[in-house]
Amino acid sequence: MTANIQKDFFKQPRHLSAAKAELLQAFLLHWVAAVTSSAPVPSTVDLLLIDFLANPGPDELSEVPALVLKSIFLESGPRRGVERRLSAFFYDASKVALQRTKLFIEAVPLLEELPRPPLFLQTPQEHALLQESLAAPNSALIILDPFAGKVSQELWINTLNRPDTHFLVLLEPSKLKAAVKSAVAGSPAQQFFGETLPALQGKMTNPGTPSAKKERLLVDAFLGRLAFFDLAGTKFRVNLPGKDATHFYAVFVSAQEGLHGQFKETLLPYSDVQEDGVPLMGVNLKPLKLLVPEYHQYLEFSQHKLVEDLRTRATDFHNQPLEKIYLRHHLGTPYSKPNYKLAYETLKAEGAVTFQNPKTAQLIHKLTFDCRIKYVK
């Protein structure tokens, strides 16, 4: 599906519903492939697609709500039949918006083939059906802003520890800030941030802290807290075009290492890139100019810093395949596969490592992600 990516999609203002559909169309089938292939009996896995950001946006975006479901039919390739195991749930805090989404989706003839019609959560009984599906051992992808409202906050906190559950979080900083500032004992935000909440609230009320720094503190706190639930987050920042202001963060949350790598590689075509080839994992940002070779030391991440870090990691990565090194190391960084390949080629040229054929154990010159990295003592 990555062939359909519009690299300049975020270079113009986009309604959140259009942005969500663009990201899901690029990533959804990668998620399907990963969760079905890792299941004990792949063909019997049930898939839950739970969209709690179902506002369709303005009328000119009427085709958007059905795009993701249509893509499952049209582009599943060797995974045809996925639609027979898919249950889709839609919810929005606005009943009017949810009803419009329902009308737009039901108007697509192709979706009549779904053996399980999409369910629009408008009544307590329909919400109960969602809970029944979540209680069963199904794989779930949940799309939400966990701080957008009470229902979304409760779904978030109640599914964080659910096995085989993955999240595409579209995080709006203003809603995150409001949830943190207003969190009280027992609230979902308090349950999520736990003992870190009081200090975080103190930082948010400090009048001397610039708003941009407060946003970074909040997002970093959100990502850092995921580890408490044995989860990790990979974020992609979308700024408003022409403005130094965040529109939203797309954060993939999962315990599955491979899916984080796939999410990052899927979003790379959209990303701005530093002069040294390191992606910023964001769009409409302002990359710093590397005016002199030594300027990399002032950057949080750079190709030079990656080389120097990997140089010292013999204990962790000696005799490991490059693919495994990438999956273990890249979380929390913007580094992509080409950055790792270039880094180890640099280390090989310096005599710090060699490359080994994984099947024959022979030393080779051309590096692939199957190769084992041998550190030279």
Can you give a write-up of this model?
The protein has 377 residues and is of the alpha/beta class. The chain is 40% helix and 15% strand. The protein contains 14 helices and twelve strands. The strands form two sheets. Strands 3-2-1-4-5-7-6-8 form an eight-stranded mixed beta sheet, with helices on both faces. It has a four-stranded antiparallel beta sheet with strand order 9-12-10-11. A hairpin with a 6-residue loop joins strand 10 (353-356) and strand 11 (363-364). The longest helix has 22 residues, at 16-37. The relative contact order is 0.09.
* Shape type: globular
Spatial order of the strands forming the largest sheet:
3-2-1-4-5-7-6-8
Say how many strands there are: 12
What is the oligomeric state here? single chain
Class inferred from helices and paired strands: alpha/beta
Helix proportion range? 25-40%
N-to-C terminal Cα separation, in Å? Answer: 43 Å
Q: What is Rg?
A: 22 Å
The profile of the biggest β sheet is: 8 strands, mixed
- Strand content is 5-15%
Uncertain runs: none
Average pLDDT number: 89
Alpha plus pi helix count? 14
Give the helices and strands as they follow along the chain.
HEHEHEHEHEHHHHEEHEHHEHHEEE
SSE topology:
Layout: H1 16-37, E1 47-51, H2 67-75, E2 86-90, H3 95-106, E3 119-120, H4 124-135, E4 139-144, H5 150-159, E5 165-171, H6 173-182, H7 188-193, H8 197-204, H9 211-225, E6 232-239, E7 246-254, H10 257-267, E8 282-283, H11 303-311, H12 314-317, E9 320-321, H13 322-329, H14 337-349, E10 353-356, E11 363-364, E12 372-375
Parallel strand pairs: 1-2, 1-4, 2-3, 4-5, 6-8
Antiparallel strand pairs: 5-7, 6-7, 9-12, 10-11, 10-12
